[in-house]
Specification:
Distance between the termini: 48 Å
Number of helices: 10
Low-confidence stretches: none
Shape: elongated
Largest sheet: none
Strand content: under 5%
Helix content: 55-70%
Radius of gyration: 24 Å
Mean pLDDT: 85
Length: 230
């Protein structure tokens, strides 16, 4: 900290002034150190959850890279919409962690080569709630949890786990819904091959306003038209 003052009566600063400066500088140093510790702790939590995500994706070749893909598409949408960098940071974390709840689902169900039974599908549908529960004890992730819990909700209220409608879904959730769905359609799955770009655009258009927010779906389509398959 640098300070300057015109010399008055032969002395720029009194002993009281110097003591006050010592106090201010000490408080500033403590604040900076606390900020660094907070940042380090946050990064530790992020690294731990990211490791769990990698463990999850290692279970099945069909889920490998899914979180990275969703993060990439969600970020592209957010930037196209002109969102702030701090908001994009949340979007990135939401993408990385959105499927963390699947770590609580049996591998035999996640990797099943044929269609799921109703009972198995009901089990898979629990993963958003499981993921929300994993992040709940960590206050750093309070802003991330809605994306984790609600990335399978729909604008028309027919999604899960809470049956939210469009008015209850933040822009973060709406972006995650589209990004997650796009990656699913653009990737091979045990029960089907990836869809073509044309078919994906048709699906985005067909489900716009029901499953997907119309503006977000339109933004995703525009990105695809400008860049091709991402």
């Amino acid at each position: 900290m640098n300070v300057a003052r015109e010399v008055v009566e032969g002395m720029a600063y009194s002993e009281g002034d110097i003591e006050l400066l010592h106090i201010l500088v000490s408080q500033a140093a403590i604040s900076l150190q606390n900020a660094k510790l907070f940042s380090d702790l946050e990064q530790t939590y992020v690294d731990v959850i990211r490791s769990l995500t990698l463990i999850l994706e290692a279970k099945s070749p069909y889920t490998r890279g899914h979180s990275e893909g969703v993060t990439r598409y969600a970020t592209r949408i957010a930037r196209k919409l002109g969102m702030k960098e701090e908001e994009i940071k949340l979007i990135k974390q939401g993408g990385i962690f959105h499927d963390i709840g699947k770590i609580g689902i049996k591998e035999s169900i996640l990797s099943k080569p044929s269609g799921l039974t109703k009972e198995e599908y009901d089990i898979v549908k629990e993963h958003p709630v499981i993921g929300d529960g994993i992040l709940k004890p960590i206050s750093f992730f309070d802003k991330i949890r809605p994306m984790v819990r609600s990335h399978h909700e729909r604008i028309d209220g027919k999604g899960y786990p809470d049956g939210l409608t469009g008015k209850d879904m933040s822009i973060f959730i709406r972006i995650m819904v589209v990004a997650d769905s796009y990656d699913a359609m653009a990737s091979d799955r045990p029960y089907r091959k990836r869809l073509s770009k044309k078919k994906i655009i048709e699906e985005l258009e067909r489900n716009s306003g029901t499953q997907f927010d119309a503006d977000i779906a339109r933004t995703m389509i525009k990105i695809l038209e400008e860049n091709g398959r991402l």
